[in-house]
Specification:
The protein has 253 residues and is an all-alpha fold. The protein is 61% helix and 2% strand. The chain has helices spanning 17-31, 54-62, 67-76, 91-115, 119-137, 139-146, 156-179, 188-209, 214-235; strands at residues 44-45, 51-52. The chain has a two-stranded antiparallel ribbon with strand order 1-2. A hairpin with a 5-residue loop joins β1 and β2 (51-52). α4 runs antiparallel to α6, α5 (119-137) runs antiparallel to α7 and α6 (139-146) packs antiparallel against α7. The radius of gyration is 18 Å and the shape is globular.
């Protein structure tokens, strides 16, 4: 499977209307309380320059009776061409933005772990979302790229070690969801294992990010915050307001 958003070139990304709609809508259908912008789903512009808002994407999701049905409808649809997601022109800032989104995603995943009663329910939610975190944000690529910007230079060993441990912890959570979750009630041991790996990923990223240029890190986080505020404002007071239930960003806790 090819990643929906490919960032390994740090400047070029090809996105199709079908994949963007599929990504946004399946997230919303399966997760309910999902923050679209937190998964880097851009607004989509029709050829007549009208904007497809997040609310319209929610409407698509709500009208589907199952994730399978939604997948079929989206893949059979013939949507208008859309504008591609535009990465930050500053490659380091874009990479820091993606790592910040990974941190946010770990908090979202922990919320799923805490709320799910059955293994099969949790696996259904996390298998898709973790795969998209892995494919969209390419955490190892971000660590490798941004390592050349470590400050001070003598912190490179500690920074890279923390970054690689963050990648390993995220992968451990992905592997556990894919291979070890089955059916039946969630156990305390399962919750603990998943939560500890998600938390470790987030905390190791904090260690890595302290070696990054702090002005660019701040700007990348402000971008996350701004996107989330715009998303929240768009749904405030609407019939879809209950679907929007973002987590508190980890650097604000």
């Amino acid at each position: 499977h090819q990643p929906m958003h490919h960032f390994s070139s740090y400047g070029t990304m090809i996105s199709s209307a079908k994949l963007l709609l599929l990504q946004a809508s399946v997230f919303l259908l399966l997760l309910g309380s999902h923050n679209v912008i937190a998964w880097s789903t851009p607004r989509m512009t029709r050829t007549n320059h009208e904007v497809t808002t997040r609310r319209e994407v929610f409407g698509m999701s709500a009208s589907a009776v199952s994730s399978t049905g939604l997948l079929f409808l989206l893949l059979q649809a013939d949507p208008q061409p859309v504008s591609a997601y535009t990465p930050d022109t500053d490659k380091l800032r874009e990479s820091l933005y993606l790592m910040s989104r990974v941190q946010e995603a770990t908090v979202q995943q922990e919320r799923f772990v805490g709320r799910s009663l059955l293994q099969e329910d949790l696996k259904k939610k996390m298998k898709l979302t973790l795969r998209l975190v892995e494919k969209n944000y390419l955490l190892l690529d971000q660590i490798n790229f941004s390592s050349s910007f470590v400050q001070p230079a003598d912190g490179i060993i500690d920074a890279v070690e923390a970054g690689n441990e963050a990648v390993d912890s995220l992968q451990a959570a992905i592997d556990y969801v894919n291979n070890d979750l089955s059916v039946g009630p969630m156990t305390d041991e399962q919750r603990s294992y998943l939560t500890s790996n998600l938390t470790d990923c987030r905390e190791k990223l904090f260690v890595f990010l302290k070696y990054m240029p702090q002005d660019k890190l701040l700007q990348s986080r402000e971008r996350v915050e701004d996107e989330n505020v715009k998303n929240r404002e768009e749904y405030a007071g609407s019939s879809d307001d209950g679907l929007f239930n973002p987590v508190k960003l980890p650097w604000q806790q």
